[in-house]
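URGENT: need a sanity check before tomorrow's submission.

F., can you look over the Membrane fusion protein (Multidrug efflux system) record below? I want to be sure the sequence and structure line up before it goes out.
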Amino acid sequence: MIHSGIHFFMRESLRRDVFVCLLLVFAAAGGCSRKNDSAPQAGPVEVTVMKAETAPITLYEDYAAQTEAVEAVEIRSRVGGILERQAFKDGSLVKKGDLLFVIDQEPYLSALTQAKANLAQAQAAHVNSSQILKRSRPLSEARAISQQELETAAARERADAAAIEAGKAQVQQAQLNLGYTTIRAPRSGLISRALVKPGGLVNASTTLLTTLYSVDPMYVSFTVGEQRLESLLQQYRSGSDKQAALPIRIRLADGRDYEHGGKLDFVDAAVDPRNGTLPVRLVVPNPDGTLRAGQFVRAILPRPANPNAIMIPQKAVQELQGKHSVFIVGPDNKAVYRDIETSTRSGNNWVVEQGIKPGELVVVEGLAKLKPGVPVKPVMAKDTADGNGKTAPAAGNAGASEPTSTTAGNTAGKPAGDTR
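Structure tokens as predicted:
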């Protein structure tokens, strides 16, 4: 009993001690909370802002494209035989009429000689039959020979005359075949490698010897979405003057702009129902042979000019799950969260389609400190200095710029800052 009483007393003492400690902890927390509540609030957050302004701008869309020769001629032989000689260097430029290949001519020389001999024989036979017919006519009038003999002589003369015409045709065909043994360039252009080397067998009309590509001009082919087609046609429907004002540029694989612009040459008659696109083709001058058939390039097309474009720096825009937003300085100098619509970048700037009105102050720097409703102290971007002591310009409004991101999945995805 004594031990039980001692244990009970100890448990009660421990409970009282724990209860007292908890009361002290809560009291201290409440004091801290009251102390913090009584602390003075921080001042407004200083942020760098820019004034949204409108300015005309021409944006560009670029599409994956491929060059194509205006004429690609497959070189084949009209006669068969052993290839005797290749008269060009693989991959060289050739002119119309230049000798390309020579087929073994001996069989065709023999055939020509045989055809000429057959013609001479037919001509001799015709001379003989003509003389017989000439003698037979007066004899038939004198009734020295029958009418049937006269008709036989006349038929023989006509047959020999026809044999002469057949002989001439054989000679002509043999001459053509002999001429076909020398294969010449049908036009000027860039020739590919020879697919048959000297000593190889060439089958008439079936063996592909090489391919000749025209050089100047060159086609550039790509596809556009059907929603872009009408505006594209409207831009170039008025003729060459408007094409000169809004040229289509070609960008090479190494990032350089091709020195010659292209003109719209062909738009396909039907839209592909599988992806809603249709083929478009440009014609581009290529006097120096810079472009080669099959090259991958970018076709850069201007979009209709926007006379009231609003551009803001890319760093002022927050992106989350495909949505874009900015902070605006409200009339009471408090941060206002604003969703915007934009799909096109121009260098380091976004082109805003909806969500910002001209004259509003857009926060450019200090976004990490902002929440909706937070008081701010706006400082114009043109009034701030960079690390070198120079004035940092506000986001400009270029007269012509090129996007780094456009619609239709055909954009190049150029690095930010490229406004060439």
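My own read: The CA atoms of residues 133 and 152 lie 9 Å apart. DSSP finds five helices and 25 strands in the chain. If you see anything odd, call me.
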